[in-house]
Amino acid sequence: MPNTLKPVSEQTIVITGGSSGNGLAIAEAAVERGANVLLVARNRPALDKVARELSRKGGKVGTCAIDITAEGAAEEIAAAAVREFGGFDTWVNDAAVSVYGTLEQIGEAEHRRVFEVNYFGMLSGCLVALKHLRERGGGAIINIGSVLSDRSLICQIPYSATKHAVRALTEGLRMDIDREGLPVSVTLIKPAAMHTPFPEHARNHMPLPPTLPQVVYDPKLVADAVLFAAEHPKRQLYVGGQGFILSLLGRLFPRSTDRLMEQFYVRGQQTTEHPGDAEARDNLFAPRKDGSIEGSQPMYVRRRSRFLQAQEHPIAATALIAGTAAAVGAAAWRLRRKAGRR
């Protein structure tokens, strides 16, 4: 497929889940680089406030306040982009919700809601975006997955399951497009833990407030990955080397990874120090306080990802991945050796 992707400065970009976290980081970066942006989210007041702030910075910003799970929502979003800007060049599926707890604690209705937003909302977005881009003559569809697309995380099973499904959806969509020979790029972005309001927004069944396990990265890195993919056809991009290590460890040494999570990641996803913003808690079925890129919980945040930079430059990536794989193998060998001693 030839690269028909325009420079970001010449694009109109649709971003679902654009009122906070990674979606808002993507929107800010896109506006800074001269793109037109259509922001999509459920929370109309937060969406309008974000749009005003970005417009004051000189951005051309439209909004569509809608729940991605509503019937016909994706079609309405596309229609809004056509009204505001005459169409779009890149569609970013970022909207997502989550719930913490064990499988027995989390109710079936909660499971279904997570899938309705994270998977079926993305599916409808992909289908409508593909129809528009086919008629437009090319563009990009970018799906926000997770390192949990590769490996389930304890206490976040429904979210992990949807991100596994998102990976399969993205791969299937890409094959359909390739077979048809369309000039449409399909990219899966796999962030590690990002310092967004994600744990504050999630529903929680754990005894203590949820938090993000270290290592945590800057959401602006997700924005960098998305805008790179909007200009350069890429199959996938990991954001954060620690996330890739977890993914690789899970594939190579699944039982050792199970034990690692059982021992460290239950307590590591709960906090007594800073519970987060109570007004933002639990947006599973309805919007709550919104409008921030980063979460309110204080923690060390990595502002750079050399691993992402390496993926954007494939020759360097080959050397880095080889070195990472060797490090993961050594770490897993040590884990197994300790387990054998016990």
CATH topology: Rossmann fold
Class computed from helices, strands and strand pairing:
alpha/beta
CATH architect. name = 3-Layer(aba) Sandwich
CATH evolutionary superfamily? NAD(P)-binding Rossmann-like Domain
Strand order in the largest sheet: 3-2-1-4-6-7-10
- Computed over alpha carbons, the radius of gyration is 19 Å
Molecular shape? globular
Largest pleated sheet: 7 strands, parallel
CATH class: Alpha Beta
Q: Provide the succession of SSEs.
A: EHEHEHEEHEHEHEEHEHHEHH
Number of domains: 1
The tally of beta strands, per DSSP, is: 11
Q: Give the overall pLDDT as a whole number.
A: 94
Total of DSSP H or I helical runs spanning 4+ residues: 11
Strand content: 5-15%
Can you tag this structure with a few keywords?
342 residues, Rossmann fold, globular, 11 strands, two-stranded parallel ribbon, single chain, alpha/beta, 7-stranded parallel sheet
Write up this protein.
With 342 residues, the protein is of the alpha/beta class. Helix content is 48%, strand content 14%. It has helices spanning 21-32, 44-56, 73-85, 108-136, 157-180, 198-201, 219-231, 241-252, 254-264, 306-311, 314-341; strands spanning 12-16, 36-41, 60-65, 90-93, 99-100, 139-144, 184-191, 203-204, 216-217, 236-239, 301-302. It has a seven-stranded parallel β-sheet with strand order 3-2-1-4-6-7-10, with helices on both faces. Strands 5-8 form a two-stranded parallel ribbon. Strands 9-11 form a two-stranded parallel ribbon. Helix 3 packs parallel to helix 4. The longest helix is centred in the middle third of the chain and has 29 residues, at 108-136. The termini are far apart.
